[in-house]
Each structure stands twice: as structure tokens, then as C-alpha cells.
Design a protein that fits this description.
CATH architecture: 3-Layer(aba) Sandwich
Largest sheet: 4 strands, mixed
Oligomer: single chain
Number of helices: 7
Number of domains: 1
Radius of gyration: 17 Å
CATH class: Alpha Beta
Strand content: 15-25%
């Protein structure tokens, strides 16, 4: 008699809530960019992405960062209390929360135009940036700088990641 095992899910679960009427990349693209940025840390994890207008972005930015203006992306890592104990999560195949991203497409679009970047490329850049902040809360660490550098390279034509390097040619 063989023991029954639960396969370990290696994909990132992504929930997208769209609260603003504007173009946004497909859910699959956002999931791919986040997964690529997170690497093995995406395994069996869940990220919620909320697309908001300027008013909601401004409100959240003021409340959580003390800055009274709309911003492109906010990252809210899940509390350690949000995940069940390790023993429980090892036997359960349900994805565990990694955190939430709040993206403001109107700000993102304005930045892309101002910086003369393809809109899709700027989306990928900010999904990667926000995702990295779910696992490291400050960019002033060697691991974060190394991860960001590696993940960002394809955003600007590098060849580190075939998944991310193709996004700028699309759209």
C-alpha cells in the first residue's frame, strides 16, 4: 500500500480586482511577471492585485506611507499571522497569502507616457517591483538589489529571463 501524497503547487495564485475602467494586461501576464520576480518564493502562494483609480491610490498612499498623492504601486506583505503554522501548510495544498499589490493604472499610464516607455513594459516593471517588495520591504539590502537588478534587466532588453524579456515587444 502506497502513501498518498499531496503534490506541491509551484504556481502563483493571483486574484485580480479591477476597480477602474482602463486597459490592463491580462491576468496571466501579471501572474507571469510576478512569478518570475518571486522565483521559488511564488510556490504555493497567493497574491491579490487591486487596480484602483487615483482617489483610492491617494487615500491608501496617505494612510500607509504618509504621502498625499496617488502612486503607481503599493505593496502590502501578508502578516506572518495570516499563514497557518508550517505543519498545517505542509499538508494542505491551499495557497498561502504572500500579500497584496495595489496598482493605479492612471498613474502608471501617465508615467509611461512621460518616460516614453511602452505601457506594457511599465506594467511589467511595476508588477516586478511591487512583487519584490512583498518579500523584502526595503530596497536597501544586497539581496533586494541583486534580485531587482536581475529581474529588471529583461525589462530593458536584457536576456536574464525569457518570460520577462518578451513583454516589451507585445502590445
Amino acid at each position: 500500500m502506497s502513501a498518498k501524497t499531496n503534490p506541491i503547487r509551484s504556481d502563483l495564485q493571483l486574484d485580480v480586482q479591477k476597480r477602474v475602467r482602463t486597459w490592463a494586461p491580462r491576468r496571466a501576464d501579471i501572474a507571469s511577471w510576478a512569478s518570475e520576480a518571486l522565483g521559488r518564493r511564488a510556490a504555493n502562494r497567493e497574491v491579490s492585485v487591486r487596480l484602483v483609480g487615483r482617489a483610492e491610490s491617494r487615500k491608501l498612499n496617505a494612510r500607509y506611507r504618509g504621502k498625499d498623492h496617488a502612486t503607481n504601486v503599493l505593496s502590502f506583505p501578508a502578516s506572518p499571522l495570516a499563514a497557518p503554522p508550517l505543519a498545517a501548510s505542509a499538508s494542505d495544498d491551499a495557497a498561502q497569502p504572500l500579500g497584496d499589490l495595489v496598482i493605479c493604472p492612471p498613474v502608471l499610464r501617465a508615467e509611461a507616457l512621460e518616460q516614453r516607455k511602452p505601457l506594457r513594459a511599465h506594467w511589467a516593471h511595476l508588477v516586478v517591483h511591487g512583487s519584490l517588495h512583498l518579500i523584502v520591504t526595503t530596497t536597501n539590502t544586497m539581496p533586494m538589489r541583486a534580485a531587482w537588478s536581475a529581474a529588471r534587466s529583461p525589462c530593458f532588453g536584457g536576456s536574464v529571463s525569457p518570460t520577462l524579456s518578451g513583454y516589451a515587444r507585445q502590445r
